[in-house]
Design a protein that fits this description.
6-stranded parallel β-sheet, single chain, 281 residues, alpha/beta, binds pantoate, Rossmann fold
Length: 281
């Protein structure tokens, strides 16, 4: 596996791959890699000649400076994990000026309204920051296929919209959520949880499974009450729980037979913000 720490050498590498007509599969990351990330590269490996990873903690997508500061940075360990996976041909670890040569400004995008729901409302500017870095990475990596985890389902929808509005010839693939044995969705943020907190956080997945059982049997307002009661009982800080239309990401108060729905949840465990979601049958 080749490791590139600057834009110039990385772009030369990409050009040489393109000259050889190799198809490129790409999954960007912010590091602190776990099995969920590796599953993106497993998927990429199946359908592309070469697989590229990137590691860059993107400042413009953090609306909370403390969250940015506390974001785990484990580059040596990440390189080892990628190397051991034997799935990745090259990893790009750019410097800030490689991504933001003209200063660290986020662009503004109109994603058709989905950017204002859920995480967009909770974290103003977040999706503009994600769009800015992913657009720049796409322009440098020039992938044919790009892979994003469904844990950040709203982000996945935003990226699909991004390639559409920028008219980029890149196919976006969503990859199923990878979970710990107790059901907790894998996330780089889980590193900041104690063993006891990790165990307690399994209630998030357990609750989503209950919601799936209640869905179409119990009304949505009643499901929301039940979820709130579970987290009150466990004395855990539920930031939000809602059921939304999978296409518009708008919150649903009742369901229609012809639409797909997904439950979304955010819980704060001792200042660690955990997000999860589940498609509802
Ligand atoms: O999901 C992430 O890790 C980040 O939002 C991404 C897509 C790498 C952009 O910084």
């Amino acid at each position: 596996m080749q490791v590139f720490y600057n834009r110039t050498s990385f772009l030369q590498y990409i050009d040489s791959q393109k000259e050889q007509h190799k198809t490129i599969g790409f999954a960007p990351t912010m590091g602190a890699l776990h099995a969920g990330h590796i599953s993106l590269y497993e998927e990429a490996k199946k359908h592309n000649d070469i697989v590229i990873s990137s590691i860059f903690v993107n400042p413009t997508q953090f609306n909370n400076p403390e969250d940015l500061e506390k974001y785990p940075r484990t580059v040596d360990d990440d390189i080892e994990k990628l190397e051991n996976s034997k799935l990745v041909d090259a990893v790009y670890i750019p410097q800030v000026q490689d991504i933001y040569p003209d200063g660290m400004e986020r662009k503004h995008y109109e994603f058709g309204g989905i950017e204002n729901e859920m995480e967009g409302a909770a974290r103003p500017g977040h999706f503009d920051g994600v769009g800015t870095v992913v657009e720049e990475l796409f322009r440098q990596v020039k992938p044919d296929n790009a892979y994003f985890g469904e844990k950040d389902f709203q982000q996945l929808k935003i990226i699909e919209k991004l390639v559409e509005i920028l008219n980029l010839d890149i196919k976006i693939h969503g990859v199923k959520i990878h979970r710990e044995n107790n059901g907790l969705a894998m996330s780089s943020r889980n590193m900041r949880l104690s063993a006891a907190e990790k165990e307690a956080s399994s209630v998030i997945y357990q609750t989503l499974k209950k919601v799936d059982d209640w869905f179409r049997v119990v009304s949505i307002p009643e499901i929301k009450n039940r979820v709130q009661e579970i987290f009150d009982r466990d004395d855990m800080a539920l930031e939000y729980f809602l059921i939304a239309d999978e296409d518009t990401l708008r919150e649903a108060d009742f369901f229609s037979e012809d639409k797909n729905y997904r439950a979304f949840i955010v819980v704060n465990v001792d200042q660690v913000r955990l997000i999860d979601n589940m498609h509802l049958k």
